[in-house]
Amino acid sequence: MVDTSSFGWEGHVAPTPLDEYSKRYADFFEMRREDGILELRLHTDGGPYVHNWAAHNAWNRVWQDVGNDPENHVLIITGTGDTWFRGDPRQTWPKPLVEETPDYIFQQTIDAWKLIENFVNNIDVPTIAAVNGPGIHTEFALMCDVTLAAEDADFMDPHFMVGTAPGDGLALALQHLMGTKRAAYAIYGGAGIPARKALEYGLVSDVLTREELVPKAWQLARDIMKRPRFARWSTHNILNRPWRKLVTEDFGFHFSQQSLATVASKALIPVPELVADARERKVW
């Protein structure tokens, strides 16, 4: 913990320490910090992350606690096992969102909104994602300064495929990184983007074996730590600037369109067979 007593700041309110917030989010992230490098590993019961709304609710707050902790100098985000994300959409959405209460709809909206805003705006240190396998909800991995991918990682935006509009931030990332035409083709077709193709398109920084993936992220993080703190902070600000502009200018529009489509359609996953291919590829 930074000793602020020498600053002469009487009444200073200290940020939440790692040993406290790591316990608060323990059901969703395994955290470890070494020499200022914090690794957040998504998990469910110690295994691959299985999507649930409790985790979705926690994500926007964990970004705030991580960003507010001055002991965090570099952030690594990765997953557990051989997939980034798992979850049966029929279990995630047992009924159309329009059938939920207004407070439920509002909270899910705020969670999805702040998930992106807080990740982009509240974390002021270099960020590295190590995408350890196939799975959706890769928007915050793609918005990291550096995105490393395992050889079998598979990137896709499933929203149109399951009957709504692609507005949670992933389409925003795809459009920015690989261009409007490629993004439209992938979104309309519900097509996966394999890791090597993702590298060709500029979605990721490098593709490695799963065994090499996290060690490479840590090696890069340690190299980053060799530079002065102000250099690290300023460089992240420069590299993160396009995302902050996109989120400020376009994310609200994207997300409002998804919200409208999801509620007004009064259905989700109208044809369950549409997700069969994604399930076979372990993307969902």
UniProtKB/TrEMBL annotation:
Pfam family, one: ECH_1
Record field: transmembrane: none
Domain of life: Bacteria
Name of the protein in question: Enoyl-CoA hydratase/isomerase family protein
Phylogenetic classification of the source organism: Bacteria, Bacillati, Actinomycetota, Actinomycetes, Streptosporangiales
